[in-house]
Design a protein that fits this description.
This protein has 426 residues and is mainly beta. 4% of the residues lie in helices and 43% in strands. The strands form eight sheets. Strands 1, 2, 3, 4 and 37 form a five-stranded antiparallel β-sheet that branches. Strands 9, 10, 11, 12 and 13 form a five-stranded antiparallel β-sheet that branches.
């Protein structure tokens, strides 16, 4: 199943078939990006946070790259080629290592490769999963968990030794699609999308799965409160209006509480639809056209906020570090334009839509909240942009696009640039 935020946006791609005719990302003209020398790159990066973008394919369907961007200058620091398609990225808690998920489309095997965030050198690849998707590192930095999007299982990787442990079975095929880890690093919660609608708790000490927790239909996002007491699971309800819900899970007992219904919502088949405020007191859930606030203290919903402009549809959300603004991304129907709408969590009102050519797929915000980075990765066969656009959050204006590579797929941002040290994975 294809999700918004990875490759071509599902619903929009159908519209573009009539606009652009047949084509594929593999045959699109590659975008080659060159950066400054290694020494100059390190000097340029300084102490500013670095945005790490993985590009699914640069030269062909079996070649990808990793591109660090200096957020102070919005310049590419260096393009790092990797074997196979790059599908995801996760940062170690200390910011010293970026873990990049790779997929060998020919052999149907997945790998994870570590990249030192100061030297930009690659470590040895670790074989993990068939098609590695979501990745998460424990807050103590000891273990990287890799979810398999083709099979319901998760592979633990010891970050000190660079070795993969025995895959952990979670749900029925498919999928293990989303993960979240408690702040104390003791438990990983894994959402199993089809067909049973469950969440699997994994003990990180023994790397064994506990009893599956029944949630709702099509769980696809998990957020854990800062105190680690509750995991909230968003159930999309197969996209049917009124069937979506949010299920709270007590992490002390691994039991589900009463579901919070989202009565008027209808959800796109998408990741990144739920965000939590830094305090953990509120959740925001984006559906096709609105953003619904949920009070986690009372377990009740507040009035939905209309977000999508007319003839537009939402399919992703991100929240500022201070929790004051939720950014909702989407696209216009039968159009080649996308949008970002800022929503104030203080007033509950949506700001003016930021409109641009192409489709947004993933978003990330700098730690100071000043810049929102948006990947444009959809419909390369239509000649639409495949790059990263920086948005100034003070003025809500789009800056000069940053070319990283063909099909930018995922992005994460360091809190600061770390001093050089030995790589966690040899």
């Amino acid at each position: 199943m294809i999700k918004y935020g990875v490759g071509v946006a599902l619903g929009v791609a159908l519209v573009l078939a009539a606009v652009a005719g047949p084509g594929s990302a593999a045959t699109a003209s590659p975008v080659r990006v060159t950066g400054p020398t290694h020494r100059a790159a390190r000097a340029a990066a300084g102490s500013a946070p670095v945005a790490w973008v993985v590009n699914r394919s640069v030269h062909s369907a079996v070649k990808g790259s990793v591109t660090p961007i200096d957020t102070a200058t919005n310049k590419v620091i260096k393009t790092i080629p990797v074997s196979f398609n790059a599908t995801g990225v996760a940062l170690a808690p200390d910011g010293e290592t970026a873990y990049v998920a790779l997929f060998d489309a020919r052999a149907l095997h997945g790998f994870v490769i570590p990249v030192n965030t100061t030297t930009y050198r690659k470590g040895a690849p670790v074989r993990a999963a068939y098609d590695p998707g979501t990745m998460a590192v424990t807050p103590n930095g000891k273990t990287l968990y890799v979810a398999d999007e083709l099979v319901g299982r998760v592979t633990p990787i010891n970050t000190a030794t660079g070795t993969a442990g025995k895959p952990i079975r979670t749900g029925a095929n498919p999928y293990a699609v989303a993960m979240a880890i408690t702040p104390n690093s003791k438990t990983v919660y894994v959402a199993n999308e089809e067909p049973d609608g469950t969440v699997t708790p994994i003990n990180t000490v023994t790397n064994t799965a506990g009893k599956n927790i029944k949630t709702g239909s099509e769980p696809l996002a998990i957020s854990i409160t800062p105190d680690g007491k509750t995991a909230y699971v968003l159930n999309l309800g197969q996209g049917e209006r009124g069937k979506g819900s949010v299920t709270p899970i007590s992490t002390a007992t691994n039991t589900a509480g009463p579901a919070i219904p989202l009565k008027d919502a209808a959800f796109p088949d998408a990741f990144n639809l739920m965000v939590m405020t830094p305090s953990g007191k509120a959740l925001y859930v984006a559906d096709n056209t609105t953003l619904t606030p949920i009070d986690t203290v009372t377990g009740t919903t507040l009035p939905a906020i209309r977000v999508a402009p007319r003839h537009g549809g939402d399919y992703g959300a991100a929240i500022s570090p201070d929790g004051r603004t939720v950014y909702v991304e989407g696209a216009f129907a039968r159009s080649t334009r996308g949008f970002i709408v800022p929503v104030s969590t203080t007033t509950g009102t949506a700001g003016k839509a930021i409109v641009f050519r192409g489709y947004p797929s993933r978003m990330a915000i700098t730690p100071d909240g000043r810049t929102l980075y948006v990947l444009r990765a959809g419909a390369p066969q239509a000649g639409l942009p495949q790059d990263v656009i920086p948005i100034n959050t003070a003025t809500n204006t789009v800056g000069k696009p940053i070319e990283t590579g063909l099909q930018p797929t995922a992005i994460t941002i360091t809190t600061c640039h770390q001093p050089a040290r030995a790589m966690p994975l040899p």
